[in-house]
Amino acid sequence: MNLLKLATKTIFAGVLLIATSCGDHLTELNENPNGIDPASANPNQLMPTVMTEAAKEYLGLGYGDVGGTMQHTQKDGWFTGHNSYDWSPRDWNGWYGMQRNNNFLQKRAKELGFKFHEGVALTMKAFIFGTVTDLWGDAPYTTAVRGGESNEFLTPTFDSQEVIYSGIIEDLKAASALFATGDKTGVINNYDVYYAGDPAKWQKFANSLLLRYYMRISAKKPDVAKAGIESIYSSGIYIKTAAEDAVMNYIGANSANSWPETVAFDLTESNWRRIKPAKTLLDKLVPSKDPRLTVWFSTVHVQWVADPTLTVAIDDFIRKDGVVQNGVKFLTDTQFRAQKALGHKFTRHFNPNLIPATLRLDTSEYVGLPAGLLDPSEYNYNPTPGQTVENQHVSQLSNVYRNSSGGILKARLASAAEASFILAEAALKGWSVGNGQAHYYAGIKNSLDAWGVGGQYDAFIKQEAVAYKGTLAQVMEQKWIASWTAATEAWFDYRRTGLPALTAGPASPQPVLPVRFIYGDNEQNFNNNNYKSAVSALQDTPYSVLRGKNSQWSKPWIVQGTNKPW
């Protein structure tokens, strides 16, 4: 839908409300002339706020530090949180702010008998609380965002993850039933920024989230998970094609509604310049000729070339179309892009017989940063270490990610690829969900379609590394790749399966990947008793010692007793 038109409509509605209220101001002095009476709020105007904020926050996780954790990306500046999990306490105020608005949406929908809006509110409630408990562990749930009802709720209790996941599942089942009625009473399509008011697609979204959360609890409650996933599969109502993915497009009008790291609102382009593909991911994409490679990433600006005829160990200067550019050790990113657009190729030569044995240069066209380097800006003998000029010997993201909006720049909350891979995993468990191989290939096809390269599917699946082998490791690897920009799901999959088998880099304070966020200072300062109870429910591990029990390496309920991921 056109979100700019929606924004204009919302502003116009606000102006009408202000004008009307001002007319009553002289006779109703106790009313806020600029306020909206909760008793007359329109659920359509509440939906976009909840949906856009949830999508932006979720994308921000998977494209941000969690993308670094799952080694989709690495950074070569301001990198410690991204590359090596040097995390501080993180508050969840934004997520509970969304839920406060969502509660109001649900309340108004029920008052008005708007089944569609109630279904949306239940789905978003599950998504929001699901993300919170997945990230932190035990959290306020049954008494959350109820401070206006009673003082006892000003310091809400933390519910166990077991309670929260059970509540999420029940809410999604209720939402699915509401959408199944097809009732669109009161719906204004343009205010639904995911599916334009289509209850059938919303039901598929809700059921796909059910697949997600059933699989999430599969190690802790296998019987519940098995029955739930089999039921959803039997219904046939879940996201099956990339066209049905739950996505939000960006407007691109300002930094708040643009793709993260866009250069339009960053004159130095430093945020864009510092995010790189991780070597871990490229090592899977390049050998298999994965068609998503060129969509997501760019070739290096300057490729290393082994040249045994060179009389020195390493060229001091870069070469343009094979000709040494005397005195020129590097160009800026802007200069390189302009020259490469004209068809010029830049290289730098070295003599493999003369360089030190400890210096290992990556001569590939696509070069990623290894995970958790002590100084990633120096990698691959970069002549410009630091944060001023990009590393010409390491790949950058595709230029599309410089933009503010459009094309593939979408926040993806759930996808056909994810649903297919969940069913492939379920089939490997022996559950009654059809053919695992078919689901595996459907997951790959749906991911390629989502990134605009579905036409290359037939050739891609013939690659040795991709052809179905019937192992969980292969299913989870392809699901991990498909979660590009939504790496949060890959993290939670890794946490419960240990797959893909990622290792921490040398800069990590611990030799293993973290499994949760650290509870924020607000909870410790203002809800201390309940905070202490939640922390006590975490499981100490040998890696928790640096921070104590409220550590990114302490295990929440969902993985306690599973021996996963480490």
Automatic annotation (TrEMBL):
Alphabetical list of SUPFAM superfamilies matching this protein: TPR-like
Domain of life where this protein originates: Bacteria
Gene3D superfamilies, alphabetized: 1.25.40.390
InterPro entries, per database record: SusD-like_2 (IPR041662), TPR-like_helical_dom_sf (IPR011990)
Protein's recorded name: SusD/RagB family nutrient-binding outer membrane lipoprotein
Lineage, highest ranks first: Bacteria, Pseudomonadati, Bacteroidota, Cytophagia, Cytophagales
